[in-house]
Specification:
The chain crosses the membrane at residues 20-40, 52-72. The structure is a single chain. Strands 1-2 form a two-stranded antiparallel sheet. The chain starts with a helix and ends in a 5-residue tail after the last helix. Helix 1 packs antiparallel against helix 3. It has helices at residues 3-35, 37-40, 50-81; strands at residues 44-45, 48-49. The chain has one domain (3-81). The protein is built from three helices and two strands. With 86 residues, it is mostly helical.
């Protein structure tokens, strides 16, 4: 495979990973925390309703999980394409 094709494959996989992460983040923070909040109000978690929980703590926790997931996947992608740091 040529250098250009390999580079395009690397960046294509990187952008796909970024898009997936952003969709999950938007769904959790905007979707569950704002749009679907009235539907989630009847479900209780930790002494408060699930919609409020997503708006306050859930989106932050999911965001932190996404950071670690992205770093893990990027390290894997870097190794596959021979651009890792080790």
């Amino acid at each position: 495979m040529s250098q250009t094709n390999d580079s395009n494959a690397y960046w294509s996989a990187n952008l796909r990973l970024i898009k997936i992460s952003l969709v999950i983040w938007a769904l959790v923070s905007f979707g569950f925390g704002i749009i679907l909040r009235p539907l989630l109000a009847g479900i209780t978690i930790g002494g408060t309703d699930l919609g409020f929980w997503f708006a306050q703590q859930g989106s932050i926790i999911v965001f932190l999980i996404l950071i670690f997931f992205y770093a893990w996947q990027m390290n894997k992608l870097d190794r596959e394409h021979g651009v890792d740091e080790e």
